[in-house]
Design brief:
By secondary structure, the chain is of the alpha+beta class. The protein folds into three domains: 5-67, Structural Genomics Hypothetical 15.5 Kd Protein In mrcA-pckA Intergenic Region, Chain A (Roll); 84-166, Pseudouridine synthase, CATH 3.30.2350.10; 170-278 and 299-307, Pseudouridine synthase (2-Layer Sandwich). Helices cover 19% and strands 28% of the residues. It has six helices and 15 strands. Strands 5, 6, 7, 8, 9, 12, 13, 14 and 15 form a nine-stranded mixed sheet that branches. The chain has a four-stranded antiparallel sheet with strand order 1-4-2-3. The longest helix has 13 residues, at 154-166.
């Protein structure tokens, strides 16, 4: 059994930051809510005394955190319908539905794609990424729909991962974004890293983030929105969502980076993995897959075209 670990931090600046915000910023694996939970459980001490979330940091303050051992997760097969676009002994191509999480995590143990894959494939999944993410080569956000590839054995996983790293696998998305993009096409080359103030968000962080490149092309312009095609050259977390928000054209319905308009009636993120092009790991054949746009996406397109 893994043991708790004790972390100690010394505040070296002038401070003035709430303790829960400070902890969420300095410990990468926790959120502000989790920091508050640790404080309420008296797992956080300031100069040896129990702390409160609203306490403000100050220079030379010593903060000690009793970090619980990581929760050990197990994954059970679950009979969950999957939209399978293609399958053979090496790969399975899934058209992921909206609101499906890719793999289990604390607070979200069940009803994930991995639970469904374990039921459908049994032991026929690669184990390179461990028991929590068997077969998972790349991911889609919970609210993003469309295509992703799953590896059914370790050799297929290695080949597909290499294609991701050398950009020979192409992932092309369609999105509806706010505002009218004037350029017909463009390239967004802006580094992405963790947001400095909100650990649940990513952001363009010049000089600190990892290089991220998104190619976009306008498919159709409407009065107040644009239908775009986006091709990933790199695969950073939330990349398209962050990049489109960075150029001030956030994705419609994006709960983190988007904007809410009065009476827009959009309750889902309008980002869809439309095309997936890869080289088959065994045969070497170039394969192209396509997933039709979900109904809510096409319905919003029609409404925006009719009414702007």
């Amino acid at each position: 059994m893994k043991k708790n670990k004790e972390l100690t931090f010394r505040v070296e600046d002038d401070g003035g930051e709430r303790l829960d915000v400070f902890l969420a910023g300095i410990i990468p694996e926790i959120s502000r809510n989790y920091a508050q939970k640790l404080i309420k459980e008296n797992r956080v001490l300031i100069d040896g005394k129990a702390a409160k979330s609203k306490t403000k940091t100050c220079r030379d303050m010593t903060i000690t955190v009793d970090m619980p051992a990581p929760e050990q997760l197990s994954v059970s097969p679950q009979e969950i319908p999957l939209d399978i676009v293609y399958e053979d002994s090496d790969i399975i191509i899934i058209n992921k539905s909206r609101d499906m999480v890719i793999h289990p995590a604390p607070g979200n143990r069940d009803d994930t794609l991995v639970n469904a894959l374990l039921y459908h494939c049994g032991d026929s999944l690669s184990d390179i990424n461990g028991i929590i993410r068997p077969g998972i080569v790349h991911r889609l956000d919970k609210d993003t729909t469309g295509l992703l590839v799953v590896a059914k054995n370790n050799e297929a996983h290695r080949v597909l991962s290499k294609q991701l790293s050398n950009h020979s696998m192409q992932r092309v998305y369609e999105a509806i974004v706010h505002g009218v993009i004037s350029e017909d096409k463009g390239i967004i080359d802006a580094p992405i890293g963790r947001h400095p103030a909100n650990r649940k968000k990513m952001a363009v962080v010049p000089g600190k983030g990892k290089r991220a490149i998104t190619h976009f092309e306008v498919l159709f312009r409407m009065k107040s929105a644009t239908h775009v095609l986006c091709r990933l050259e790199t695969g950073r977390t939330h990349q398209i969502r962050v990049h489109m928000a960075y150029i001030r054209h956030p994705v419609y319905g994006d709960p983190l980076y988007g904007k809410k308009l009065a009476n827009d009636n959009v309750n889902a993120q309008m980002l869809h993995s439309r095309y997936l092009i890869l080289i088959h790991p065994s045969s070497g054949e170039r394969m192209k897959f396509e997933a039709p746009l979900p109904d809510d996406f096409t319905q919003l397109l029609v409404r925006l075209k009719d009414h702007g």
